[in-house]
Amino acid sequence: MDWGWPFPCLPRLDWLQIEISSDCTANCCYCPRTVYQDRWLTRHMEEGLFRRLLPVFKKTRLVHLQGWGDPFTHPQFFHFARLAKGAGCQVGTTSNGMLLNEPLCAQLVEENIDTIAFSLAGTGAENDRYRRGTRLEQVLAIIEHIHRIKQRTGADRPHVHIAYVLLKSGRTTVGRLPDLLRDRGIAQVVISTLDTIGSPRLAPEAFSPDDNQEKEALRRQLGDVVEAGREVGLTIHCRLPAFAQKHEENQRHLDTEPPWCTENVQRAVFIGVTGKVSPCVFVNLPMIAPPPHPPGSMARPYHPLSFGNIATTRFEKIWHAQQYSSFRKAHRSGAIPPLCRFCPKFG
Fold it and tell me: What does the alpha-carbon distance between residue 25 and residue 154 come to, in Å, rounded to a whole number?
């Protein structure tokens, strides 16, 4: 057997994100699956491919079963979760909630799934407009049902999180979030802004990286939301865009303190539905071919980045290979690769 690396050791990871399905019941206006639907690869991860990661799980704290699709479209979701739990990992997932019902909520508790996050993009009718194919009222009902089951059984898991995407046109309603989510047994809320802009029509929904006035106004507004959440016992975190500076200014910043990527590229990995290994979900979209970007487009061009595929190569060999090692070293040293330098997750 070709081990490749002379010391075939597995890294210790904080988390391993695995896209077990690229299928979804929703058509959210900002999701790459909707924007690139003409070239999207809809697929479920095969069990044999998933099992190739079992040795990696033993040195991984959290396995998060989610990518660009909804994991509950995969008929083997709970089987995969058991395999990861059996290796000693915590298991989490993110869903739009539309495929969950009372029996599945009960199973989430019975199977001791550690965390489930629900995606939202509004506090009223705008959520259902942005997230076509979903219903805010149904998601809230599912959350309440999980809460009741936990109260009845004395279980403390799954922890329920909210992944809230703040679009620019949704700023006027985000202040309602604390009252909407209070007393529903939600562990935390993470508010983030639009990261992937696959179409020029989505550009108005992203916050400008160069507008300092807008940046400060957004920070003040979200600060008020965080404080209002605290008053009702709700923990709210905000992940603002990096508001990247010009290249020269950024380089001066690197001389004093290397910026940090929220995707934790040193100790976290994303595995796409076909087995491709990437540092994060944003550079690994399941598409038949990369999308075109017309000249003058305001969209952030998508550039795929994969260091190998677990279908053909052992994970540890991919991890220790020169290309991937050099990528992580560049992040540690501050010599940030061009692909990452102006990413909203980096700064």
Answer: 32
> Structure tokens of 206?
């992203």
CA neighbor of 142 nearest in space, from 98, 172, 175, 112: 98
Render 175-236 in DSSP notation, one character per residue.
Answer: GGHHHHHTTS-EEEEEEEE-----SGGGGGGSPPTT-HHHHHHHHHHHHHHHHHHHHTT--E
For residue 317, give both structure tokens: 């060999």
DSSP string covering 68-91: SS-GGGSTTHHHHHHHHHHTT-EE
Buried b (16+ CB within 10 A) or exposed e, 24-39: bebebbbbbbbbbeee
Token pair belonging to 22: 């690229």
Q: Which 8-state DSSP code applies to residue 316?
A: H
| Helical (H) or strand (E) element with 27 | strand 27-28
pLDDT per position in the chain (347 positions), as tens?
A: 344 445 568 999 999 999 999 999 999 999 999 999 999 999 999 999 999 999 999 999 999 999 999 999 999 999 999 999 999 999 999 999 999 999 999 999 999 999 999 999 999 999 999 999 999 999 999 999 999 999 999 999 999 999 999 999 999 999 999 999 999 999 999 999 987 787 888 889 988 767 788 888 999 999 999 999 999 999 999 987 654 443 334 343 434 455 678 889 999 999 999 999 999 999 999 999 887 765 555 556 788 999 999 999 999 999 999 999 999 999 988 888 888 877 777 65
**Helix (H) or strand (E) run with residue 130 in it:** helix 125-130
Q: Residue 322 corresponds to which tokens in the numbers above?
A: 């020169």
Per the structure block, which two tokens stand in for 217?
A: 């106004």
CA distance 291 to 38: 9
Task: Return the half-sphere exposure (C-beta side, CA atoms, 13 A cut-off) of residue 345.
Answer: 14
| CA–CA gap between residue 293 and residue 302 (Å, rounded) | 9
